[in-house]
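Quick board copy: two proteins, each given as sequence then C-alpha cells.
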Amino acid sequence: VQLQASGGGLVQAGGSLRLSCAASTRTFSSNAMAWFRQAPGKERDFVAAIRWSGGSTKYADSVKGRFTISRDNAKNTVYLQMNSLKYEDTAVYYCAAGRPIITTMTRSSAYDYWGQGTLVTVSS
C-alpha cells in the first residue's frame, strides 16, 4: 500500500485546512487509516483514525470537536478536515494504513504503511 498525503500549508489561527491521503490500494492489508502528527522536537502523536468498513472513528482529545476524519471508499482516500486551527496544531501530518483492532487504533505501531507527511503551519 502506498500512501500520498497532501493539503498542508500555512494558515492563520482560527482557519481551516483539509488534508487528503490517497491509498494506492485498499486490500486485506488495511482495514483502517489514521492521521498522526509530529511537531518539532516532539514525538509522533495520534490525531484521528477511521475504519474502512463501518466508518467508526477515534480522535485525540486535543482535536475533538475541531477535526473530522472521513473516507471515500470509492477513491481509497481519507480526509482530515481541520477547523479552528491553533498554533499548537503546527506539525508534520502523516497518514497511515494498517489493521489495528479497536483498542490499538491510536497506536502508531498498529499501522504498517505510512505516507510522506505534509506540513501544517498555523500562525498565531
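And the next:
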Amino acid sequence: QVQLVESGGGSVQAGGSLRLSCAPSGYTIGWNCMAWFRQAPGKEREGVAMICNGGHWTDYVASVKGRFTISLENDKNTLYLQMNSLKPEDTAMYYCAADKSPGSWLAPQAFNYWGQGTQVTVSS
C-alpha cells in the first residue's frame, strides 16, 4: 500500500521561507514524475512544481518560478519543496503527488497517489 506523508508546513510572515517534505512508503522515488499541488479554500487544486527523470527535469507554475525549488533526495526517498519569499497568496494546503500517468502534470487526475496535505499559512 502506497502512502505519501507530507511535513514541514506552518505559519510564516510574508517574505519568509518553509521547506516541505514528502516521504513515501511503499513507493520508491525514481524516474517517474512527482509533484506538489496546493489548494486554497474555495479554489481548485493547482499544480505548483513537478520533477521527473530522477531530478533532471523540473517545471513550475508561473506564480512560483524563482521562489520555489522542487528536489529529490534519492538515498532518503524523499521529495522536497523549498519555498522562499512567501506571499499571502501562497496560503493553501500543499499536497505531494506521485506516479504520473500520461497527460499534463498540471492536472490532478494525472497522478495516482496523494498525501493528506500540510497547511501553509502566510500572513502579511
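Board note added afterward: The CA atoms of residues 4 and 24 lie 4 Å apart.
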